[in-house]
Amino acid sequence: MQLLLREISDYSEVSVYETTQLYGEKGKFRCLQFSDHAVQGAMDLKDPKRIVLEYPRAIIHLMEANHSEFHRVFVIGHGIGTIAGHYPDKSFTVAEVDRLVVELSRQYFRYSYDNVLIGDGRQLLSTQESHAWDYVILDAFNPKGTPVHLLSLEFFSMVMEKLTSRGLFILNLMGKASQDKLINAVHTTLQETATYVKAFVLPGNKKTDLHNILLVGGNRAIDYKLSGMAGFKELDVGQGHTIRN
Question: What keywords is this UniProt entry annotated with (predicted)?
Answer without folding.
Answer: Polyamine biosynthesis
